[in-house]
Design goal:
With about 170 residues, the protein is α+β, with helices and mostly antiparallel strands. A seven-stranded antiparallel sheet has the order 1-7-6-5-4-3-2. A hairpin with a 2-residue loop joins strand 3 and strand 4. Helix 1 packs across helix 2. It is globular.
Length: about 170
């Protein structure tokens, strides 16, 4: 079997690992950076193995629902989850925007302290995907940075704001 296509996002933040971890695990902080240019609503967040993160991204009368099930939580160094598009009742569904988008993505996010900075690495890999889903994902990899980079810009602003409030 050939290796599955993998999307990789790496960022270095001028913040401690604990602070970066908080922005990925606290509902009021996640909603400020995840899903740029939309209303970001965390319906449930239970950051533990087997826990769920139920998220809605809303713009106008439209909503996109996501269901995340954590498979590994190693505070403050690693989060692993199964990421899926869902309906409003949190049932996993095919993406309404891309017919052959993988129903489930295995997501791994690591946080490594490097002096006063934190190196974050996120990977996305199709999970239990069909050949069509794998092909769709591989074709989309080149365009994924646009959305993620917008979110990472908001995350950098949030971290700077949090650090300023900690310093006062």
């Amino acid at each position: 079997m050939s290796e599955l296509p993998t999307y990789v996002l790496e960022r270095t933040f001028n913040a401690s690992r604990e602070l970066v971890w908080r922005t990925w695990t606290e509902p009021d902080l996640i909603s400020r950076w995840y899903g740029p240019n939309v209303e970001s609503i965390v319906h449930q967040l239970d950051v533990k193995q087997g826990g769920l993160w139920l998220h809605e991204m809303k713009w106008g009368d439209n909503s996109n629902f996501q269901r995340v099930e954590y498979t590994e939580v190693s505070k403050p160094s690693k989060l692993v989850w199964l990421h899926a598009t869902s309906d409003a009742d949190w049932n996993v569904i095919a993406s309404p925007m891309m017919q052959d988008w993988p129903r489930v993505l295995l997501t791994t996010v690591t946080f490594e302290q490097d002096g006063d900075q934190t190196k974050m690495r996120l990977t996305w890999v199709p999970h239990d995907a069909t050949e069509a889903e794998i092909a769709c994902f591989e074709a989309a990899i080149g365009g994924m940075n646009q959305g993620w980079n917008a979110g990472m810009g908001l995350l950098e602003e949030l971290l700077a704001e949090l650090q300023a409030s900690l310093a006062t």
